[in-house]
From TrEMBL:
Keyword set, alphabetical order: Hydrolase
Gene3D superfamilies, per database record: Carbon-nitrogen hydrolase
UniProt superkingdom: Bacteria
Organism: Kribbella steppae
Residues covered by the CN hydrolase domain: 3-250
GO molecular function, one term: hydrolase activity, acting on carbon-nitrogen (but not peptide) bonds, in linear amides
Pfam annotation, one family: CN_hydrolase
PROSITE patterns named in the record: CN_HYDROLASE
Database matches in InterPro entries: Aliph_Amidase/BUP, C-N_Hydrolase, C-N_Hydrolase_sf
Descriptive protein name: Putative amidohydrolase
């Protein structure tokens, strides 16, 4: 019996009530499709920055504490479903780009974005670890967009026992050299390359969600997908909003991928 996974591509804004209603609609849609894991994009509550070239504190999305009523509402909406979503978290005076994994029973896992592109460094505090956590659907981990550029991030989660990795993204087209067609954009190619590589090199299932539409001067790629442990894309949204849904027998797929070549066991850390 497989696990029904949904990777969301959707747009979100600074209007938290609008975002909450969109999250509710996506969870409702996922529930109708019998999805057991729904991965929403980064910045699902409050939207992303409007300008990475000249960011300011005034451009930050609304900051929410973990005990904010909006977070509690998403937890209640999740019910029996495992739901991952991103937001700007307030921790004292600091602001973190945060991914949260929840069910109706509460928080299962939290990740602060570790790797930051230049535009984020002056306004977001950085996380400092990649840790897997147990859920009703198995052991998993989370990354936030730029984290997946670094092989060590997904590898740390896999070494910690994650068999499923959710990567929540606010990944735009190229800021410096945007292509006229989105599917020809350099960032479009890299987004898919990283998703497939991180899954294949760790022999895990990777669920990649992303924003769609535009915020300020940035246009987001979409391209949400579910990737198998061999690096094969089993469901995707392309550039449009929607939910990429796939049923994956995670244990069976990983066993097949690792039957002859088991990358985690074959590492030589002393040589690196």
């Amino acid at each position: 019996m497989g696990l029904k996974i949904g990777a969301v591509a959707a747009g979100f804004t600074r209007d938290l009530e609008f975002d909450l209603s969109r999250v509710e609609a996506l969870i409702r849609h996922g529930r109708r499709a019998e999805v057991q894991l729904l991965v929403l994009p980064d910045a699902a509550l409050g939207g992303y920055l409007t300008d990475l070239s000249k960011p300011s504190l005034d451009d930050l999305p609304p900051a929410l504490a973990l005990d904010d009523p909006l977070i509690s509402k998403v937890i209640a909406m999740a019910g029996e479903m495992v739901v991952c979503f991103g937001f700007c978290e307030a921790v004292g005076p600091d602001r973190y780009n945060t991914a949260l994994c929840v069910t109706g029973d509460g928080v299962l896992g939290k990740h602060h974005k570790v790797h930051q592109p230049p535009g984020e460094r002056s306004i977001y505090a950085a996380g400092h670890e990649f840790a897997a956590f147990d859920t009703p659907i198995g052991r998993m981990g989370m990354m936030i967009d730029y984290d997946k550029t670094f092989p060590e991030a997904a590898r740390a989660l896999a070494v910690d026992g994650a068999e499923l990795i959710a990567c929540l993204c606010a990944w735009p087209t190229s800021i410096t050299n945007r292509a006229p067609r989105m599917n020809e954009d350099r960032q479009s190619r890299l987004f898919d390359l990283y998703d497939r590589s991180r899954a294949a090199e760790n022999q895990v299932v990777l669920v990649s969600s992303n924003l769609t539409g535009s915020i300020g001067g940035m246009r987001f790629l979409g391209q949400s997908k579910v990737v198998g442990p061999g690096g094969d894309i089993v469901a995707r949204t392309w550039s449009k909003a929607g939910i990429a849904i796939a049923e994956v027998d995670i244990q069976a797929e990983i066993e097949v991928a690792r039957r002859v070549l088991y990358h985690l066991d074959e590492r030589r850390p002393e040589a690196y």
